[in-house]
Write a structure and sequence with these properties.
2 copies of one chain form a homodimer.
Chain A: H1 6-12, H2 19-28, E1 32-35, E2 51-56, E3 59-64, E4 70-76, E5 81-82, H3 84-89, E6 95-98, E7 102-107, H4 109-118, H5 120-146, H6 149-166, E8 170-171, E9 174-176, H7 181-188, H8 192-204, E10 208-211, E11 214-217, H9 220-227
Antiparallel strand pairs in A: 1-7, 2-5, 2-7, 3-4, 3-6, 8-9, 9-11, 10-11
Chain B binds a DNA duplex (30 and 30 nucleotides) through helix 8.
Chain lengths: ~240, ~240
DNA sequence: CCCGAAGACTGATGTCGATCAGCCCAGCAT
DNA sequence: ATGCTGGGCTGATCGACATCAGTCTTCGGG
């Protein structure tokens, strides 16, 4: 093992990477940069920017409507790409805001595409990672389109827990969560007021407690049932591609 | 030019492919198959299946909830992949239903990954196509999360028009559309009853008429304004990668 | 020490869209 | 010719969630 960044850990879960491949991956990381919470790193409509890999902290990608509403599309945690799609499509269709202070490493598209040429398996790995992100957005769409506020919140908190558990940042008891109720509202297509009420209901039902930057699963099984949560697509075991 | 399938047309818009690359792409197409409208080709939870490229007709990908509701995630038109994500993630997180009778060509994953090794630029092209699909799902998420029923419908019809126009199947006057009002309801997170009312309102407002398998834009500009539709991310000009 | 801002929280009121319960028409099978 | 099915269409009613208009606490800055 040459490197053990969150990215390597994530991709390694899918493709067993050789040492040369790992070193190509490591060479992608250019400048290390930091951004403060709340100050966008990418703006909707912006063009010609770099992509990043999140090293520490949380970020979110969102779209703004002309009437001022916003929809948070996804949250990113360490190991996730920031703005990869923007770079490939050559213009950003969304903005990215750090939820906490974050550290990232810059990746130049040219380098990434070169790396694909040198080590095509890396291309497969990145395609896989992109598919995984898309699956997340799809699940989010179902959440917003077909579940009521309570189920939606429950499902979201569970899914995030599962996702964090994969990188060792949470378990069935709960996880640290720096999101505000406003973040939840913007992500779930609810008003902040209603988010607050729904959280109270879930808490009073003894299922989950969201408080002081921490999500505590008070009754994991009941919550799973209530949210119709199916964790199967999250857990797969070991590299698929040898 | 060796081939001029919808797929080549689509990918060619992004990556200028050489003749050897085109022939690799052509060699991916295996068996040609047909499926009848309404009979799923991929079931949620299914594993080990092939991917397809849609040659003619329309399909939709959707997720089923345990309470019987369904959310249509996206519609596919000729040139689009069917089930690529399912294959990469090794299990299908969604089902796919032909909206009309369809023709597809089968693609074996192994062949696809081999092709990446032979011609890495192909990998980039497929990654780009996947990003474009993801952008579509993201826009759909915003639709469902933050727009009211009228705007949602208007935006959806416009976006689909733009998408069809790209492959020569529609323009600012309208397009042929085989969807039922039930399809629209399942896609937009509305009830079929409400879809009907909303369509009536849009028709009576003189903006768009959905009838007899045809969408007619009666007042394109007004509709664009009403839906806050921003077509910019759809139109890009010529291959980005030389 | 006070002020302002951010975030959590709450009650009252209003509305958008779901649900229920139908009708109508065209196409098709019996 | 009769009934059945799928799709489009409609009125009445109801409830989930938005909106408005606040309060309270904490925290950092002047």
């Amino acid at each position: 093992m040459i490197d053990n960044t969150p990215l390597v850990r994530k991709i390694g879960a899918f493709v067993a990477l050789s040492d040369p491949e790992l070193s190509v991956l490591a060479s992608l990381h250019k400048r290390r940069r930091t951004f403060v919470a709340g100050r966008d790193l990418v703006h909707q409509g912006q063009t010609e920017q770099a992509a990043y890999i999140l090293a520490s902290g949380w970020a979110c990608s969102y779209k703004l409507l002309s009437d001022g509403q916003r929809q948070i599309v996804d949250f990113q945690i360490p190991g996730d790409f920031l703005g990869l799609r923007s770079v490939l499509l050559h213009v950003s269709d969304h903005s990215i805001e750090p939820v906490t202070d974050i550290e990232v490493t810059e990746v130049l598209v040219a380098d990434l595409l070169d790396a694909f040429t040198q080590t095509p398996r890396l291309a497969t790995a990145v395609l896989w990672a992109a598919s995984r992100d898309e699956a997340m957005v799809v699940e989010h769409l179902v959440d917003v389109g077909r579940r009521n506020a309570g189920e939606r919140m429950a499902h979201f908190l569970l899914e995030f827990g599962a996702r964090l558990a994969l990188v060792g940042l949470g378990n069935k008891d709960g996880y640290a969560c720096p999101l505000t109720q406003y973040h939840l509202a913007d992500a779930l297509g609810l008003s902040a007021v209603h988010v607050n009420r729904v959280l109270r209901q879930l808490r009073e039902a003894g299922m989950v407690t969201f408080r002081d930057g921490f999500v505590a699963f008070d009754d994991y099984d009941q919550l799973v049932k209530f949210a119709q949560f199916d964790p199967s697509y999250m857990d797969h075991k070991g590299p698929i591609l040898r």
